[in-house]
User: Fold this.
Amino acid sequence: MSNEQIKNLEEIFEARIARDEKIEPKDWMPEKYRKTHIRQMSQHAHSEIVGMLPEGNWISRAPSLRRKAALLAKVQDEAGHGLYLYSACETLGISRDELYEQLHSGKAKYSSIFNYPTVTWADMGAIGWLVDGAAIINQVPLCNTSFGPYARAMVRVCKEESFHQRQGFEIMHKLCNGTPEQKDMAQDALNRWWWPSLMMLGPTDAESIHTEQSMKWKLKRKSNDELRQQFIDQTVPQADVLGLTIPDKDLKWNEEKGSYDFGEIDWDEFWQVVKGHGPSNKKRMKARVGAWEEGAWVRDAAMAHAEKKEANKLKKAI
Amino acid sequence: MSKNWPLWEIFVRSKNGLEHRHFGSLHAADAEMALENARDVYTRRSEGVSIWVVESVNITASNPEHNGELFEPAHDKVYRHPTFYELPDEVKHM
Assistant:
């Protein structure tokens, strides 16, 4: 195809998206659209999969059967979300094995938030409340994104996500109305998860290199800073209900703009964690790669069994 | 060298009276495992009463580049729609 023809196709393509038409896997698309979507969707899928690890840590130690059943269901949902997103990503012509390879080799990223350790039970509350809360803010606009398989996967994800946040808040609420030690535990979890949750919504607009293109393709509807402000404004009153203090001395209601002012985010910490130097990066990757390698014989055995069954069926037919 | 599990397309009937609808896809070693995995991946909240699984390689899809010759012939056949026909105002129930 000549450059001229490609340029024409690109114009038609951009116009379709501007008209709110959806793009489906077999439609013509610019190479950059395909690559950007593979990057973002796989990053999203990897985050769901790695996100199971910090919470998996507490399944065997949940304080009651009710909490355990809920946490198990939540972690199972994360696996499901990862699977929806991987298969949506595969419609763009990349295989599941390539996607795993990118995660395991460190070429692909996942959300920085999962590189923090979960040291007490209250962390299960804080993650559900704050991390899933921030994720919902990020994800709801994606239900309308331009790539059909991604939008459809996100509709399912968002439907399931709200239980996650509520179960987290309930854990916090229970702890905050328990003994003083329990309340301290909740405050400690908030102290540790607050700033990483704000960072999770991505670098400031000035530093965010993909924003403009992503807005055009409806991969993004609001900028990182807008999403962060929305998250803070909706979360602070929830902390008040819990009777907890947000660990930010500069946090203050700004009557004029109708939202909260907040303190400086430590972006050095964010970039350190993204680059692999967070408290748990190595541990997470070791667990993930280990699970994949140790499960290889199971996958091979299942495939061999399926082939044998198929061969027997054929033999009988002859 | 290990062989990858093939890809399956999953169709779910959400309740009797409705058709099976495409829900997504997943990898499984065989049809039986695809059914079991589909149960866990796509019906964790009672979203279905029946599941079909079809290996993705068995699906033949039309090519969007041929949409013109495939679908355009229908565009100029407005006489296939009831609104094409003119009726006097006093005719009811038609």
In short: The CA atoms of residues 64 and 71 of chain B lie 10 Å apart. The interface with chain A takes residues 2-5, 7, 24-27, 29-30, 33, 40-41, 44-45, 61, 63-65 of chain B (CB under 8 Å). The mean pLDDT of chain B is 94.
